[in-house]
Write a structure and sequence with these properties.
Elements lengths: L2 H16 L17 E2 L1 H12 L6 H10 L4 H10 L3 H10 L1 H4 L2 H6 L1 H18 L8 E4 L7 E2 L5 E4 L7 H21 L1 H6 L7 H19 L5 H9 L1 H14 L19 H16 L3 H10 L3 H8 L5
Helix pairs in contact: 2-3, 3-5, 8-11, 9-11, 9-15, 11-14, 12-14, 14-15, 14-16
Length: 309
């Protein structure tokens, strides 16, 4: 299955969720109570070590990883149709990256300390934040991170060798959770099924990038932001043209399968719009509330002034 097909299945899952009532969760609002859960990583390493002696990869992964999954892993499996077969294929395709995971687990207490420091910094930027747990998961060698109503779901195979990447990913996804709480879970999910939703999606991702920038002074899509800033006038024009036709190929997840330019440039464009809106606002608290709620994407874009000549 191609990456684009998997992404389409994920978005279809969100569409189905949009048809169901979503209850507001209740998690700690003290960053010192934020929890990082890595039991799935422990279980994967159990399976990984067992595979040194037992070559029945599917059976081992099922028994030691999938069947023992946390609430976070079960949510991830449901969203992405993750299977032992997919895991086996990914492990065979990139064994060097999976080989880094045992050492990552050995140093997990350093990761925990970094996480708790990060949450305290996040609380300074987002004093009204809620802190669902962050689940560290092992997936099919894709750098997926996402918010959910059970907590942040962060696959570690891609950021396993970079704590900076992991930090940015965790705060980006936590920021999506704050968006969902500000606008209501039902409204948050509904955007994915809405017609002509390109602007709303870019601003949502850009808002999460902007909050990550305030918390850790960087964004998850650094190469995309650099590329945008080096080609800003041209890409502004292209963005407005593509909004007219709702062509997401250059900007969102459809761009992941090309190599001509950095992918996910919509994240960077959304970041620039949100940052411009925030910087020119005299009431930063109100500005942040608007970035989180994003009730009217077109009105927000207009009021940001980012595209004014």
């Amino acid at each position: 299955m191609t990456l684009l097909a998997k992404t389409s299945m994920f978005l279809m899952g969100l569409l189905l969720l949009a048809l169901q009532p979503i209850a507001q969760p209740n998690f700690p609002q003290n960053p010192q109570e934020a929890e990082i859960i890595y039991s799935d990583l422990v279980h994967f390493i159990d399976a990984y070590e067992e595979l040194a002696a037992d070559k029945d990869t599917i059976a081992v992964l099922n028994a030691l990883y999938f069947d023992r999954g946390s609430a976070g892993l079960k949510e991830f499996i449901s969203r992405h149709q993750l299977s032992p077969e997919m895991m086996k294929e990914a492990m065979a395709a990139d064994p060097e990256r999976y080989a880094l995971l045992p050492d990552f687990l050995i140093n997990i207490h350093e990761v925990e300390a970094l996480y708790h420091e990060l949450m305290i910094e996040y609380g300074k930027v987002m004093p009204e934040a809620m802190y669902p747990p962050t689940y560290l998961l092992v997936g099919a060698n894709r750098g997926i991170g996402q918010a959910s109503l059970v907590g942040q779901l962060v696959t570690v195979t891609r950021p396993v060798d970079s704590m900076e990447k992991l930090k940015k990913l965790m705060v980006h996804e936590l920021s999506h959770f704050q968006q969902a709480m500000a606008m209501g879970g039902q409204n948050y999910v509904a955007l994915y099924a809405a017609p002509d939703n390109m602007l709303g999606l870019c601003l949502r991702e850009g808002g999460a990038e902007f909050i990550a920038y305030l918390a850790v002074n960087d964004v998850t899509q650094r190469s995309s932001l650099d590329y945008l800033e080096n080609n800003e006038d041209r890409l502004k024009d292209q963005f407005l043209q593509d909004l007219e036709t709702q062509n997401k190929d250059f900007w969102l997840w459809e761009s992941l399968e090309q190599s001509e330019h950095p992918s996910l440039l919509g994240y960077a464009m959304g970041f620039k719009v949100c940052k411009h809106y925030y910087d020119q606002s005299s009431d930063k608290t109100f500005a942040m509330q608007q970035i989180l709620k994003m009730e009217d994407a077109e009105a927000f874009l207009s009021s940001s002034g980012y595209f004014e000549r």
